[in-house]
Amino acid sequence: MTWKNLFTSSIGKKLLMSLTGLFLVIFLIIHVGVNACIFINDGGVTFNTAAHFMSHNWVIRIFEIGLFTGLILHIIQGLMIWKQNRAARPVKYTINAAAANSKWYSRSMGLLGTLLLFFLIIHISKFFVDTKIAMYTNGGANDATQNLFEEMKAEFQKWWVVVIYVIGVISLFWHLLHGFQSAFQTLGIRHKKYTPIIEIFGIGYSIIVCVLFVLMPISFYMGWIS
Questions:
Q1: The pTM is what?
Q2: What's the pLDDT at 16?
């Protein structure tokens, strides 16, 4: 397969979608692991230490470039596949038997992906962008004065921010539930012996990651973490 086919053909788009999706799945493990440090409930000491290391380490900074490249490609390919599927079926079937052939979240990846995109825009603008601005305006890469824990705590005192995060994480859960299994299937990793294991692992991964993510804003808002 040529590079052109990778971006234009149906198979190429799904392959790139799967690879970037799995890359983002790995990133989520790191992201939720660092953020879960807030549950130690030590006033944010452990979380701030971990967050400072992640935002100032040059290896992680290079990794960020790959992360955003993968994220952008994933979004673009997702939109292209959604548009392609819509164009292939301009008129709805008279008898819609989709529910008998697939899960509702498999058929709603366009909607779930859109909700997730809005959530990511808000998340990145509130935490990632502000962190980078502070890093470059308050002493550069050696600055360790920014208290990310307190910033997170302040944001999650707003009920509407908590609601947005809960909706975003719910969208992420269904997105992961379908995407995890679909990625392996697209890559040709499907076997009667191993596929059930992959499916169980995908369900477990989606539940654990999303429960941890959704507990963060709720715990701050309810005062469980101080």
A1: 0.76
A2: 75
